[in-house]
Amino acid sequence: MQPERGFSTQAVHGGEPERKPWSSLTVPIAQTAVYTFDDTASMLQYQEEVHREGRASREEYGRYGNPTQHAAEAKLAALEGGESALLFASGMCAITSTLLALLSTGDHLVMTDDCYRRTRTFCLEFLQRFGIATTVVPAGDYEALAQAVRPTTRVIFAESPSNPYLRVLDIPRAVAIAHDAGALLLVDSTFATPYNVRPLDLGADLVVHSTTKYLSGHNDVLGGVVIGPWQYLQKIKDARGTLGGVISPHAAYLLLRGLKTLGLRMAHYNEVGARIAAFLHGHPAVERVHYPGLPGHPQHHIARRLLRNELGGAMVSFELATAERARVMRFFNALRLCIPATTLGDVYTLLLHPATSSHSYLTPEERRTAGISEGLVRISAGIEYAGDIIADLDQALRA
Ligand SMILES: *Cc1c(COP(=O)(O)O)cnc(C)c1O
Question: Please, what is the end-to-end C-alpha distance for the chain in angstroms?
């Protein structure tokens, strides 16, 4: 048996078509909405193949597939260790299409309370209207998770590491609960990327990502993916054909390009993340640091067991010693290199202030109940030299 290749070898070579048009080195952008057949026999052969297997070895129409998209899907499946992958126009499109494909009226869904806001909105407001009930359980409470499942539970949805406290899911434990109940475990692994953890290897049934973040890596394109066995993906692909949220050829090309350097970027992000966490830990202007790589983090032991290199990943959250909004804003306004932005996974180091962005829809009381303090800041490490980032944070903390 061939030994498993290294991550970056797969990032470059994994999923690449053996032969590319015009002997080009990179996978070209197939900027077309439709494909033609040489004759009626080949058209019928295509239809038969789709009927039999739910997929075919060639293209017909852009909503069903595109060669650039298929190359990106094959690379993502190779990196995540899954059988197949399906790309969508955004992360939310991947999540909503997947849940719509898997759930029917009368089914039940369990999700952790720290999932992405729009994912929660979709489950609690949209799916609810179609008679699909959702139970929300506190992240990290596996007894509550086990108690929430019912005979009608089809899916357990969890996110890891989660926003903004970077809670790490004990995937094997969640898998055991899901499978005992006859349900699937679906993990939103956007913050981890396949570089830091591969949920499918740990028994999860399906993985979703917003490819807008680390996988594309440059904040210039939206996308989303679901990865797993064709057994489930066939249904989701059919739903994508009906719902129509496929990724565009150009977006798929930018994603393919970003994926090639994912291993290099993640190795650097993880190291910078760990260095930022170490710097902030014990800084007089900082009250608390939330980083899975630090021994004080509630899931430190899970992170050590499940995350690559036992590092704590590329995201760091911390609480300023001050909870006074004007002083928090002074910190943000003093930054010279780090950029305030409501996203993550870029070449730039990005900072987010949950109280005025991701959690601004809550009242101050609700934020307090949810544990979102005024001084809470989330950092997504960039590819800059770590010393420069730390110097910038230091001068802003002094301000
Ligand atoms: C950004 C994000 C999403 C949504 O992805 P889009 O590409 O913005 O639609 C879902 N889950 C997580 C964890 C995210 O960070």
Answer: 58
